[in-house]
Amino acid sequence: MQTVQTIDELKHILEANKNKTIGLVPTMGYLHEGHQALLNRARKENDFVVATIFVNPAQFGPNEDLDRYPRDIERDLKIATEAGVDLIFNPTPEEMYPFESGITIQVGELSTKLCGESRPGHFDGVLKVITKLFNLVQPTKAYFGQKDAQQLAIIETFVHAYNFPVQIVRVQTVREGDGLAKSSRNVFLSEVERAEAIHLHKALTLATEHWKQTNNVDEAIAIGKAHIEENTAGKIDYFEVVTYPLLQQVSEQASQLLFATAVFFEKARLIDNILVDVKEV
């Protein structure tokens, strides 16, 4: 496995592999089993696998945890090597953003809901780095986890709307044995919070099961919220049910529904979701 930090080095290696199918796995590092699932899928489906490790400052707000975001590059390289990654791109912020162009990408309505409502500008920053990575790597396929469902929906919609020549591959959320979604931010949970955090997925499960039985979205949301409030000390940011991938109000025409929640604990904000195929209910 090769590791490079500059765009010139990245381009040089990719040029030597231009006739191969390329799988791209963008990450912010501190890799866990969820990332491993993305890497393993990419390794299985492509000739050449590129993983990026870059804590993207453009997607963090002024009061968010950019400086505290966990980092362990040596551990990341070990996991990537074991997964069969061919190339790691680990640039600095200065390499990725050498100057301020004044040109921005604005997500619009899709970024005003769910996580975007409390994180203005976050998804603009996500598309900023994703656009650069797609242009630099020119992957055949790019891999994203379903845990970050709003991010996945925005990227899928962006790629489709602007004809990016890349296939977006969804990979299901990887969970701990007790149901907690794998996340780099789980390390910030106290022992008590870690025990409580399993109730996010339990609440989503209760809500989806109630909706399947009654078709009542409002009741499903109320049940999910109540479960979190009764079983955790966390503060609910949102608990919502929307269509996927456009994240709109539920309608009879919807083919997929996203049951999603975000909860603030003392030092971590956790997200989780369940995607339901309406036709299979």
TrEMBL record:
Binding positions ((R)-pantoate): 59, 151
Family matches, as NCBIfam families: cyt_tran_rel, panC
EC number: 6.3.2.1
GO CC aspect terms: cytosol
Protein name (record): Pantothenate synthetase
Complex formation: Homodimer.
Pfam family, one: Pantoate_ligase
Database matches in PANTHER family: CYTIDYLATE KINASE/PANTOATE-BETA-ALANINE LIGASE, PANTOATE--BETA-ALANINE LIGASE
Protein's pathway: Cofactor biosynthesis; (R)-pantothenate biosynthesis; (R)-pantothenate from (R)-pantoate and beta-alanine: step 1/1
Compartment list: Cytoplasm
GO biological process, one term: pantothenate biosynthetic process
Record family assignment: Belongs to the pantothenate synthetase family.
Protein role: Catalyzes the condensation of pantoate with beta-alanine in an ATP-dependent reaction via a pantoyl-adenylate intermediate.
Active site: 35 (proton donor)
Record organism: Psychrobacillus soli
InterPro entries: Cyt_trans-like, Pantoate_ligase, Pantoate_ligase_C, Rossmann-like_a/b/a_fold
Keywords linked to the UniProt accession: ATP-binding, Cytoplasm, Ligase, Nucleotide-binding, Pantothenate biosynthesis
Binding site for beta-alanine: 59
Residues bound to ATP: 28-35, 145-148, 174, 182-185
Principal place of residence: cytoplasm
